[in-house]
Structure formats: C-alpha cells, structure tokens
Amino acid sequence: MEPAQGRASEGPQLTGAPAAVPQGRIAPGRRLRRYFLTGLLVLLPGAISAFVLWRIFVALDGLLGRFFEMLLGYRVPGAGFFALVLLILGIGAAAHNIIGKRLIHGVEDLVIRIPFVRWIYRTTKEVSSAVLEEKSTSFRKVVLVEFPYRGVHSIGFQTSDAPSEVSAVVGKAVFPVFVPTAPNPMSGYVVLYAEDEIVPLPMSVDDGLRFVISAGALAGRGPAPSDRE
Questions:
Q1: CA dist., res. 215 & res. 209, Å (int)
Q2: Residue 20 region by backbone torsions, left for phi larger than 0, else alpha for psi between -120 and 50, else beta
Q3: How many domains are there within the chain?
Q4: CA 69 to CA 80: how far, in whole Å?
C-alpha cells in the first residue's frame, strides 16, 4: 500500500491558478479592447463629420423647404437645400456683371441707411469678406504670446498690421493678435502686443487651428492625411 501512496503523491497537482499566457501573445480580452478602440478611431471622424453635414443640410433645407411644401402640398426632401444653393449661385453670378453689381449696391445703400441694421450689416460683411474671400489674409500667421498673464503662453493668430490709431496712443507699434478658446476657435480674445512680445511659430494657420480644436492633442503630429496628399 505504501508504494501506491508514493506514486499517487508523485502525480500532477491540480490547482485553481489560471494558465499563464505565453510570452508574446495578447490575451483575448485585451485584443478585443484594442480592436474596439481601433474601430472607434476609424469610425468617429466619419460619423461626426456626417452628423454635422446632415444637421447643416437639414437646417438649410428648412429655410426654403416650407415654401415648396406650401406650394406643392407635400414635402420634397432636399428641395429647399438645392433651391438655396441655386439662389446663392445666382446671386454670386449676378454680382459679377454690371447690372447685378448696380442692383446689389442699390440694396446696400438702402440697408446702410437704417441706423442699427447698418452696423450689423457692415460688421457681418467685413467678417464674411475676411473669412470667405479666396485671397483672405484674416489669419496671417501663427504666433506665441504671453496670455492671459505673464509667464503663461498661448497660441494666437496675428490678424493685421499695427492700427495707426492705437499705436499713436500707446506710443509704439502694436499688433492685434486673436487668441482663440479651445476647442471652439470661433470665440476668443483680441489682444494688442508690441512686436517684441510676439514670437512667430513655424507652423501653418491650418496646423494652428488643428492644435486649438484638438486642445493640443494633435501637437507635433504633422499635417492630416488629406493635407499631405
């Protein structure tokens, strides 16, 4: 009986510990997690872009879509959007000929005679021209400035040359710099800096905007794939 007990004691010992994953192999749980995160990285940019474009389409379609719905008695999806695009193209084409220019200037003269509307119209026109014109230089270059106080640096965009009225009062040339808020670059602060307080950065305006929109997450990653093409 003793030899049998000795052989039994020499047999394999069963324990509750899980089998170790061979070195170099990824556990199934971690692999699924990696696949899921990779799928999100691939789908999220396209999904968000499609959602934003869809919301813009719905908003623009609603501007003239109700008119077609009243005219036809039923709704035609997309009719208002395409009608608005054709209207914009028609106005743009008319603005390039003599008759159209005179007509537009006549309407502008009527609008700017209204006190409060005049200020809104002129401001909107100047901002739109600065942003939408093909040769626009609204953001001339990306700069580094101390903001919101000394010792703290922020990325900004120099928007124009030194305004003579302000420079005359200050006693030296100061340049307007737009310091945007993250992640929405449409809002921010316009700060006047002397030339020696502005540090130009070796990056394009697109890279600067990408840095702000991503809250600095895309710093140093280079241009987007579409830019490289």
A1: 10
A2: beta
A3: 1
A4: 9
